[in-house]
Amino acid sequence: MVEIKTNESLAAMRESGRVVARALAAVRDKAAPGVRLTELDRAARDVLAGAGAGSPFLGYHPDWAPVPFPAVVCVSVNDAIVHGIPDDTRLAPGDLVSVDCGATLGGWAGDSAVSFTVGPARPEDTRLIAAAEEALEAGIAAAVVGNRVGDIAHAIGRVCRDAGYGIPDGFGGHGIGRAMHEDPGVPNEGRPGRGMRLRHGMVLAIEPMLIGGGTDEHYTARDGWTIRTSDGSRASHAEHTVAITDEGPRVLTAP
Q1: Cα–Cα distance between 102 and 64 in angstroms, integer?
Q2: If exposure means fewest CB atoms within 10 Å of the residue's CB, which of 17, 33, 89, 198 is most exposed?
Q3: pLDDT tens across 106-115, in order?
């Protein structure tokens, strides 16, 4: 079931989205060579606590996961695509880091992700991150009243494939509102003109994930959470929570 949000609800979701944006900014500011991944999680926790917000990630336990998620951010480094658990690993110069963060405030959720490098970036990483951001922008541009979910999926997939990158099958965006994951699912590749029609008041988390090596193959690491590229190539992830409105797409997790 898809909940159509009122304009008042969209305004409330914008507030949770602002908290997510601040948390991601704090994590990015904290990231440097020698910093532990747990320190990035602590930076995000401090922002959530300061805003009086909760975390939809902390304690989240889907059926496929062996244990509840133990952090408020997913930190996926280098060949990790998504769902990386922050541990005592220290960042190294040149690491490619993808951070996914959520917040709940006033009963509404926000969800966003960003990828960046630690220190000087390799040219191929710069291109990979830029392609994820371009794919996200294309998906957002397609998120207009009257379009369908397939139009978003097609826009994302076209950018990824034209750039020569892989797309991990089975992972993509989702509806969001009172819960972090709601209907409908938003694939990162698909046929235009297919799927649910978009209406004013729908809210979607749009999140392209790209595999640098060009293959779609991936596997789940031994922790039961982290999704890694099968070929060992690097990955990038970009995400925003986006409201579908009669005035056009509204990014609720923008800084």
Answers
A1: 20
A2: 33
A3: 999 999 999 9
